[in-house]
């Protein structure tokens, strides 16, 4: 009997039995066409009138850099979008690039989707929150929109592909093409040279053409949209536009940087004062706001020598030109949408920075790799050597990053900077939402608390689709973000995003309904206290001191209330432990751990620091 069953099965006599098991097929299968009824699976189609979506994410830009939020660097295109859209002044990132990008694209917290550090071998570890491999159960915004009738494109920085997968042999499931993007043009890593980028198109590395990368990605973005629009003008698109700008190396044609010659000669202390006044005038910070003290690692501008001032001012002239040039390239994209009647029904998000301004330029700035105080005999020799290279700052021949004094200035009105997840200076970034068809109040200010995980659910609500339970047969984890749509046309709406944790390299924090606790962490003793003239020692996790702030009254963390309200401090510390457990933050890993412990990786290589 068993042999007869197998024979019948192999010869097809059980075809009707097999078809009966295909629950997705809705037609009827008979022995003849006359006895059968055809059925076609429906083609995914976006809801009627669904908007196009453009998500722009800049890199390493502080809250006080762009003129759109009171900075002294001209960004006329962003200004126009903000003046005709909305400025979200209480929006947050994770404090560093890859975690921010993973949270942004998935709508889930970075450790929850395995991106607690980076996808780079030297910065990941074999734990659920740390392996740098976004699981298929955390579908991206691109995957969702693609499966609901959108074309999906990405250009610029991706930063979420594991190093061991980033060759032309793949595997490609963690390249942009494996995460919902039908076309990609850019680079897979965390940073790249703007004239000699590690360039990828779709699933292949290609040779760069020598032009600035910002120009190339803008050309490609416009080409993708134009090609689709000519063939399917009624089909919406999703574009993720993520330039490498303004991450180091700061590289831009002198046409742009020379526009700022002499404009920062007064230095970073005066810059902070001027920006604070501009921010109050714009209404993006409280009218009674005060600057935090200058960081102990930053020298007073007036204490610098004439040569130091000359050198340091040039660093920021180049940075400013780089940001203005990036704004110009965004303008090319916006103009294309306007000229082709696509602008009115397009939602444009601009997140001005995936973290705060970068402290990675060190105290004196960086011009060439390997040129630092360690390689020089003295402070004077280091300065003299750098001055000989001053004309190369910002060019293709240099690998420029500005001194940390400018990072603090660009982060006005906050303290600290990129990587400092405990501080608003690391996590507080501007958001612009521009949607002519959907925004009633042009130029409005929105103070509701937001985070990058909120962009995905906001988009789904604006488009009119639900988060899918499955993507390509993979059951989906719940989205953790909160849609911001409730606030778009109601400036007085109460914040709905009530709790948010942060963790980068040991620095950690928890926000809860206007209150915040934070613990600074020094993983490798690199911080230097100029006022005391000594290096600060590494701290242990158990010795880190928690601070408490009431952000409703003290938005930039100037007054620590931990001793005044110890019960509130303990309440939030318990909430942090819950968030840390649920979101896979453990084990805590900092840069010291990373540089001094050997981690084992699936490609067979044992990797250890240093983190770059």
Automatic annotation (TrEMBL):
Q: Where is the Sulfatase N-terminal domain?
A: 51-465
Q: Does the keyword Nucleotide-binding apply?
A: no
UniProt keyword terms in alphabetical order: Calcium, Hydrolase, Metal-binding, Signal
Fetch the Pfam families from UniProt: Sulfatase
User: What PROSITE patterns does the entry give?
Assistant: SULFATASE_1
Membrane spanning segments where?
Answer: none
Taxonomic superkingdom = Bacteria
Tell me the first and last residues of the signal peptide: 1-20
Molecular functions per Gene Ontology: hydrolase activity; metal ion binding
CDD domains registered for this protein in UniProt: PAS_like
Q: Which family does it belong to?
A: Belongs to the sulfatase family.
| Protein name, per record | Arylsulfatase
Which organism encodes this protein? Chitinophaga silvisoli
